[in-house]
């Protein structure tokens, strides 16, 4: 059974901070190098850990979070 991927868990590297974004798309808080961030596959945006925790219960129960370290992306 394949479950729907909603978020990719990543570490905020300098590459992401410089080339993609350095603020959360939801609360506009700054991302800190080395912190955990989440890529929202539905909205194509990065959000912080706090916003992810707040949004996750609102998503589909089929929603899964991938960890980018596993190389599934
Ligand atoms: Zn946020």
How many domains, as an integer?
Answer: 1
List the secondary-structure elements in sequence, H or E: EHEEHE
The count of DSSP E runs of length 2 or more, i.e. the number of strands, is: 4
Output mean pLDDT: 86
Q: Which structural category do the helix and sheet elements fall into?
A: alpha+beta
Query: Rg to the nearest angstrom?
Result: 12 Å
Structure characterization notes:
With 73 residues, this protein is of the alpha+beta class. The chain has one domain. Helix content is 18%, strand content 27%. It has a 4-stranded mixed sheet with strand order 3-2-1-4. Strand 2 and strand 3 (45-48) form a beta hairpin. The longest helix has 7 residues, at 49-55. It is globular, with a radius of gyration of 12 Å. It starts with a strand and ends in a 6-residue tail after the last strand. The mean pLDDT is 86. The structure holds zinc ion. Residues 24, 26-27, 29, 47-48, 50-51 line the site of zinc ion.
